[in-house]
Amino acid sequence: MLKELKPALLVLALMTVLTGVAYPLLVTGIAQGLFPDQANGSLIEQDGKLVGSALVGQPFADPKHFWSRPSATGPVPYNAGASSGSNLGPLNPALEEAVKARIDALKATDPTNTAPIPVDLVTASGSGLDPHISPAAARWQAPRIARLRGLSEADVARLIDDHTEGRQLGLLGEPRVNVLTLNLALDRLAKS
Amino acid sequence: MTANGYMQLGLYLIALIGLAWPLGVYMARVYRDELPGFVRWLKPVENLFYRVCGVKPGDDMPWTRYAFAMIAFNLMGFLAVYALQRFQVWLPLNPEGLAAVTPDSSFNTAVSFATNTNWQGYGGETTMSYLTQMLGLSVQNFLSAATGMAVVVALMRGFTRKEAGGVGNFWVDMVRSTLYILLPLSIILSLALVTQGVVQSFSPYQKAQLVESVSYEQAKTGANGEPVVDAQGQPVMEQVAVAEQTIAVGPAASQIAIKQLGTNGGGFFNVNSAHPLENPTPLANFLELLAILIIPAALCFTFGRFVGDMRQGGAILAAMTVVFTALLGVTAVAEQSGNPLFERLGLVTEASDMQAGGNMEGKETRFGIANSALWAIATTAASNGSVNSMHDSYTPLGGMVPMWLMQLGEVIYGGVGSGLYGMLVFALIGVFVAGLMIGRTPEYLGKKIEAFEVKMAAVAILVPPLVVLVGAALAVSLDVGRAGIFNPGAHGFSEVLYALSSAGNNNGSAFGGLSANTPFYNTLLGFAMLLARYWVMIPVLAIAGALAAKKIVPASAGTLPTHTPLFVLLLIGTVVVVGALTFVPALALGPVVEHLQMISVK
Q1: Within the 91-110 window of chain B, which residues sit less than 8 Å (CB to CB) from chain A?
Q2: Is A143 touching B (CB cutoff 8 A)?
Q3: Mind telling me how many Å the CA of A177 is from chain B's nearest CA?
């Protein structure tokens, strides 16, 4: 039986070379050659500076920006060096407190808005890095953005539409709005 | 859910079965050395393996030798992963300078990846160097999967061989599984994922300028490194401003492809497939979902080919699909109905084309309810521990179903190899029970099922529940076990039961709130994974050996046909009754109590 130890060691060594070195290097080579943007994190540069990734959300607390979904990463929200969900159970009193506080904060930014808030805007995402909010959550914030930035609601709605991704291939996933690219576009608009 | 949600679920099942068929037929040809032309050029590589490693591919191993080779191979894998973690700080490809992993965590992770569990007590981007991820974890993703596939092929040979002494050659089955099946599929999938935005690079983590800087409070430390306290003895807090976002990257796509195809599930990043750089788009999600179940489903067709009757594989697949669809429905409806708390607080929770609604705590916008529920069910039906939403935040019933799927022994498609051999063990029990009812010696596929096989099947079916229930009881009885619980009340018990169900069935999925990276949980769960893996595999190989040695008896009027809807029902009944009888009391204390509490709040 002990004679199986030699092939065990040698097969592991060869397999490590094949699946642990050759395979990732081959995939990296092809990926960097053909799809460098995606392979490096879909990074966004603006004025020569790296301002984020189109796939990774950022925290927004200024009422003049669209707000992202709540994030449970520590020590700051949207820490893309240490992703994390809240892991709060449905009956955990901390969940109720957190959701209530978020509702209050949103309402405080726009006291005249009496529309009910979409659930995704006040619940923490799984990754803590969700780059998206639902179109409903973006529209709920539109009146505030229009008022604070002196834009018409139609302009804001058009901007939201520009940054809304539909279901992929018309079928897969959910429609969603990229908050970072939307806010960058808002800021560019303000500068021009 | 909207009509679109149901369409997405239906499309998935159709694509899964449609693609599994040709793959299963191809796999049967690989294992019988009837390679199709488009992979024959790899044959010299296969032969090189045998020459270098001193393997005689014609050596037919008795089941004991087959089992020993398998264990020796997994032991080497375990040692390699353990050593890489302990020494990573001195090894190359560690741009973040991550420290050596603690001994208990290294033990747990090494067991976890060698046993195809991929339970993760650690957070990937903050713990493992690129080298450890590649040479340790990625390699075991391939090899632990190939090990499971080899064992099921040995069992298939048991059914087809007549009065034979051996069940095949472990090295040949393992090398072929990797070279012709796992590796080509992984290359295709990883590149497809890169096009969707999954990262694949060796750069250090990126630093981006935040649009809005944020700050947090931390305890101030003095020049001597001690916390500064004020006159009342309270720690003095200071504001720390953060203007940059650190974006973790790495060679993720290549690892994610095999983590799904091999039903491993260990994430490159802490939040696994919820992470937007691991699973960026709905299409990436769809492809990864297909990858999770395709080999387990395909193996049913491989089985049909092996035994020379596709209807036999079809019956097994039908039983799996019926249970899968029913349980998927429960979780999807529970998550869409959501948490009554959200309605009480006046939020909009109805699904529409504007939002997914439902219980969105712990879920990603791009996946919504349908794709989160589908992922939770597919991964726990298989032995894939990945998550694209946080199961700890599911509604009680929505989270109970994934837990129960693991407790069933992961035979609903199940892990690569392990799902089908687990289901075939249930089939043996099923024909045994039916044989008792009609008073005849049970037979399956022309093999008489006698005392030895039934005893071995009983061991394989009873060891995992024993590990789960005893382990969970131990953890909640001890202070060190209760200390890890995050959520209060019945949900806290569910966290522990979920962890043991996951480790005790080699899944790897978690209710993430549980602090399991402690010496207690690392050790308990490590041993649970070892027992659950090998005390199923060894009895299965024993059954394979015993069956191979038997004659094949021709079917007679008294033979129970095993390709009919009646047999499908019998098989479903066996799986469900064993799973329900064993686990209903424990589930009643966790998710059931929590559900009753949830609906009683006014």
Answers
A1: none
A2: no
A3: 9
Query: Residue A31 has what pLDDT?
Result: 97
Residue-wise pLDDT for B226-253, tens only, equals 778 887 878 888 888 999 999 988 999 9
| A72 and A13 co-located in one domain | no
- The pair of structure tokens assigned to B342 is 């959200």
Q: Whole-angstrom Cα distance, residue A59 to residue A77?
A: 6
What is the three-class DSSP state of B217? strand
Same domain, A51 and A30: no
Test the B interface: residue of A86, A87, A163, A179 with most B CBs within 10 Å: A87
Q: What is the pLDDT of residue B79?
A: 96
Its domain, for residue A159, covers 42-191
Which residue in A6, A27, A46 has the most chain B C-beta atoms within 10 A of its own C-beta, making it the best mutation to test that interface?
Answer: A27
A101 touching B, CB under 8 A? Answer: no
pLDDT at B1: 74
CA–CA separation, B537 and B110 (whole Å): 18
- Nearest one of B377, B396, B366 to B487, comparing CA atoms: B396
Strand partners, A44: A52
Phi-psi region of B20 (alpha: psi -120 to 50; beta: other; left: phi over 0): alpha
Give A154→chain B minimum CA distance, Å. Answer: 18
Per the structure block, which two tokens stand in for A104?
């209050």
Q: What percent of chain B has pLDDT over 70?
A: 100
Residues A27 and A74 both lie in one domain: no
- Banded model confidence at residue B159, pLDDT cuts 50, 70, 90: very high
Instruction: Look at chain A and report how many structural domains it folds into.
Output: 2
Q: Are residues A96 and A185 in the same domain?
A: yes
Domain range summary for chain B, segments of one domain joined by +: 206-247, 416-600
Q: How far is CA B320 from CA A117, B151, B327, B456, in A?
A: 40, 20, 11, 22
A22 and A46 in a single domain? The answer is no
Helix, strand, coil share of chain B (percent; to 5)? 65, 5, 30
Residues A30 and A47 in one domain: no
- The pLDDT assigned to B204 comes to 87
Is the model's pLDDT at B503 over the cut of 70?
A: yes
Pairwise CB contact (< 8 Å): B251 & A24: yes
Q: pLDDT tens across B181-229, in order?
A: 999 999 999 999 999 999 999 988 899 999 999 988 888 877 777 778 8
Q: Is the pLDDT of residue B28 over 90?
A: yes
Asked if B362 and B95 count as a contact pair (C-beta separation under 8 A), the reply is no
Neighbours of B355 (CB within 10 A): 28
Compute the mean pLDDT over every residue in chain B, rounded to the nearest whole number: 94
pLDDT of residue B398: 97
Structure tokens at B405: 């799927």
Does residue A80 sit in the same domain as residue A21?
Answer: no
Question: In this structure, are strands B443-444 and B237-247 parallel, antiparallel, or unpaired?
Answer: unpaired
Buried b (16+ CB within 10 A) or exposed e, B530-554: bbbbbbbbbbbbbbbbbbbbbebee
Report residue A68 CA to chain centroid gap: 8
The pLDDT tens digits of the residues spanning A125-175 come to 999 999 999 999 999 999 999 999 999 999 999 999 999 999 999 999 999
In the beta sheet, which residues pair with residue B443? B448
Same domain flag for A107 and A173: yes
pLDDT of residue B386: 93
Residues 368-427 of B with CB under 8 A from A: 368, 371-372, 387-390, 392-396
Tens digit of pLDDT for each residue in B470-490?
999 999 999 999 999 999 999
pLDDT for the residue A1: 65
